[in-house]
Design a protein that fits this description.
binds magnesium ion; globular; 18 helices; 6-stranded mixed sheet; binds adenosine-5'-diphosphate; about 575 residues
C-alpha cells in the first residue's frame, strides 16, 4: 500500500492540490488534503458518502473558496474564484445532476456560456459541425439537433462530455458519473474516458464502487471523514484492502446467496398497473411471485417503475388494475396497516420520509408498529418497561449504533436508521419482506451486515423481495433476479449463473432469450435493439446490427464479452 507520487516524470503534474482545507459549520469537510493529477492519468477519488470528495472537487472547480491550501496548474499557483475561471483554465466538471437546459438542442446547450462576440446562439452551424467531429472521434453518439428533453440519462451525460471536449478541457472531473448508467453504458463511458486520458488529458473520477475503480483508475486516492488516507495504484492493493482503507477497519466478507430451498409462493403480483406521480403508467401489467425462503432481487436503472411497484405492494399507492396477494389474502385497495396485518414487512426507499419519524426517539420508532404485541401490553396499555427492554434488545441484536434508545432518530446515520427500520420490520415476523434500496448511501460494513440479515431471514422461510439500483448488490444477495424495464419485468435470471452483461442488456431494454441468460452464453440473439428504434422498442430476431456488439453498429467495441455474430450457442 505504498503511497505513490512516482511515475510522474520531470514535468510538474497537470494539477496539484496542496493542503486544501474546507470547513462548513460544524463539519471539517476537507482536512489538509494533497492530490496531484498528471496529464494522461485517470485519478480516482474514492470514499464513502460524506468523505469530502465532492467538496474537494468544488474547491478545485471554483465553487468554494478553501479555508487553507493552494491549487497549482502546471506547477504554478492559481486562484480559481469561480467555475467560469476554472473553465477558462481548462478545467471541466460533470456533476451528478446535469446542468443542461431541456428545451434547447444539444448544440445550443454546448454553445451556452461560450464566449463569442456574435452571441452564443448564432454560431450553431459551426458548433454542430464541431460536435459531429468530436463525437465521431470519440465514438460518442450525440446528435447536435436533438432536444435535450428527448434524451435518456446516458445520452445527456454524453452531451456533458462533448461539452467538455468542445471547450478542450485539459482536466475533466466526473462526480459519480456511473450512478445513473446501465452496465453497458458504463463500459462505453470508460472507453471514452480512457481515450481522453490517452489524448493527454487528466481525469478525476469519483466513485464508491470498487469494481469500477479497479477497472478504470491509474491511481486511487482514498478519502475518509475529510482526510486523505493514501494514494495507491490498483495493482498494489486487493479489493478488500481498498475497501478497508475506505472504511478504516476490517470488513466482513460478502456472503453467498442464501441457497435455501424455496417453498410455497407467498407474495403474488398479477398484472399490476400503477400510475406514477406524473400521471402516466409507471408499472405496466407487471407480474411476479416470491416464494417462502427465497430472495428475489429486482434490478434496473432507476426510474423504471421500481419505486411505484414497491409503494403499490405496500398499499401506499393505489393499483389501477391487477392484484397483490400474500398467501391468497388480497391487498389491493387495502390500507398500509392492512398490508402489515396480512404479513408484509416494508423497508421503504425514502427512509427519513416514509420509514421513521425523525423527532421520535429510537425506542419510539422501534415500537411504531407492532405495539399490539401481547407481551408489551397490560390491560390494553403499553408496558413501559417491556417496551424499553425490547427496544434495547433490538438495538443490540441489529447493531444499531446510537448513544441510547432515547436519542432522537434523526441524529442517527443513514446506515443506523436503515438497521433500525429493518429491526422493527423483522421483529414483526413478516411472511413477506419488501426492502427498497437496502443499502443505498450506507457504508460497506453496515451494508454487509444488512445483507447477512436478509439472507438469514430467507433461510428462516420469509419471502424476501428487494428492489435495488445497485446491480452488484442484486447479484450478491438474490436467489433469483428479475430485471425491470419501463414498468415491466423484461427478463429473469437465476443467481450465480447470470452474467453481468446479460443483465446489463436487459437493463437497457434488450429482451433476452432464456438460454442466453445462463452460463457464459454470448449476447442474446433473439432480440436486438436496432439503431433508430427508441429505447425499449425491441425488434425481432436476426437484426443485422447489434449496437452492443464490438466492431459492429455505431457503438464501437466496449470490451464486453457479448460476442458479435455468434448466434449458435
Ligand atoms: N454546502 C454544505 N454545507 C454544509 N455541509 C456540507 C456542504 N457540502 C457538504 N457538506 C458536508 O461536508 C461533508 C463532505 O461532504 P461531500 O463533500 O459532499 O462528501 P462526498 O462527496 O464524499 O459524499 C459531509 O459531512 C457533508 O454533510
Ligand atoms: Mg459527493
Amino acid at each position: 500500500m505504498a503511497s505513490t507520487s512516482d511515475g510522474v516524470g520531470e514535468r510538474p503534474p497537470l494539477i496539484e492540490l496542496r493542503g486544501i482545507t474546507k470547513r462548513f459549520p460544524g463539519v471539517l469537510a476537507n482536512d489538509n488534503i494533497d492530490l496531484d493529477v498528471s496529464a494522461g492519468e485517470v485519478h480516482t477519488l474514492f470514499g464513502e458518502n460524506g468523505a469530502g470528495k465532492s467538496t474537494l472537487m468544488r474547491v478545485l472547480y471554483g465553487f468554494y473558496r478553501p479555508d487553507a491550501g493552494e491549487v497549482r496548474l502546471d506547477g504554478k499557483a492559481v486562484e480559481i474564484r469561480s467555475p467560469a475561471a476554472a473553465i477558462a483554465l481548462g478545467i471541466g466538471m460533470i456533476h451528478q445532476h446535469f446542468l443542461l437546459v431541456p428545451t434547447l438542442t444539444v448544440a445550443e446547450n454546448v454553445s451556452l456560456g461560450l464566449r463569442s462576440t456574435r452571441g452564443p446562439l448564432k454560431d450553431i452551424g459551426r458548433v454542430s459541425a464541431r460536435i459531429e467531429e468530436l463525437s465521431s472521434a470519440y465514438g460518442l453518439e450525440v446528435k447536435p439537433s436533438a432536444f435535450v428533453w428527448q434524451l435518456s440519462v446516458g445520452e445527456r451525460q454524453r452531451v456533458e462530455i462533448v461539452k467538455a471536449l468542445y471547450r478542450d478541457s485539459r482536466l475533466l472531473i466526473l462526480d459519480e458519473p456511473t450512478a445513473v448508467l446501465t452496465p453497458g453504458e458504463v463500459e462505453d463511458l470508460f472507453r471514452v474516458l480512457k481515450q481522453m486520458a490517452a489524448d493527454g488529458r487528466g481525469l478525476i473520477f469519483i466513485s464508491h464502487k470498487i469494481r469500477e475503480v479497479f477497472a478504470l483508475s491509474d491511481r486511487i486516492t482514498v478519502l475518509r471523514a475529510g482526510r486523505k488516507v493514501g494514494t495507491v495504484r490498483p495493482c498494489e492493493v486487493t479489493h478488500d484492502q481498498l475497501a478497508e482503507m475506505m472504511v478504516g477497519r476490517q470488513i466482513a466478507a460478502e456472503g453467498a446467496p442464501s441457497g435455501s430451498v424455496p417453498g410455497a409462493p407467498r407474495l403474488e403480483v398479477r398484472d399490476l398497473l400503477v400510475k406514477g406521480d406524473r400521471g402516466t403508467a409507471a408499472v405496466r401489467g407487471l407480474s411476479l411471485q416470491v416464494r417462502s425462503g427465497e430472495i428475489v432481487g429486482i434490478a434496473g436503472v432507476s426510474g423504471n417503475g421500481q419505486r411505484e411497484l414497491g409503494e403499490a405492494i405496500a398499499c401506499l399507492r393505489p393499483a389501477l388494475r391487477g392484484a397483490v396477494t400474500i398467501e391468497g389474502t388480497e391487498l389491493t385497495g387495502k390500507s398500509a396497516a392492512a398490508a402489515r396485518q396480512a404479513g408484509l414487512g416494508y423497508v421503504p426507499e425514502e427512509r427519513m420520509r416514509d420509514g421513521v419519524i425523525g423527532d421520535f426517539s429510537v425506542a419510539e420508532n422501534l415500537m411504531l408498529v407492532g405495539s399490539d404485541k401481547p407481551a408489551l401490553l397490560r390491560f390494553g396499555f403499553l408496558r413501559r418497561s417491556a417496551v424499553r427492554a425490547m427496544a434495547r434488545e433490538l438495538v443490540s441484536t441489529f447493531d444499531v449504533r446510537t448513544p441510547g434508545i432515547d436519542t432522537p432518530t434523526r441524529n442517527l446515520s443513514g446506515g443506523n436508521i436503515q438497521k433500525l427500520i429493518l429491526a422493527r420490520e423483522l421483529s414483526g415476523k413478516p411472511k413477506v419482506l419488501l426492502v427498497a434500496q437496502p443499502t443505498r448511501g450506507i457504508d460497506v460494513s453496515a451494508a454487509r451486515y444488512i445483507h447477512d440479515r436478509l439472507r438469514a431471514e430467507a433461510r428462516n422461510g420469509t419471502a424476501v423481495l428487494i428492489v435495488s439500483e445497485d446491480l452488484d448488490e442484486v447479484m450478491a444477495i438474490s436467489d433469483r433476479i428479475l430485471v425491470m424495464f419501463e414498468g415491466a419485468i423484461i427478463g429473469e435470471a437465476a443467481a450465480g449463473s447470470a452474467t453481468r452483461e446479460a443483465i446489463g442488456l436487459m437493463m437497457a431494454g434488450v429482451r433476452a432469450s432464456p438460454t442466453s441468460l445462463n452460463g457464459n452464453a454470448p449476447a442474446p440473439a433473439s432480440a436486438e435493439v436496432a439503431p433508430g428504434l427508441e429505447r425499449g422498442q425491441v425488434e425481432p430476431a436476426a437484426s443485422p446490427a447489434n449496437p452492443f456488439a464490438p466492431g459492429t453498429g455505431s457503438m464501437p467495441g466496449t470490451g464486453s464479452t457479448t460476442g458479435s455474430g455468434n448466434m449458435e450457442a
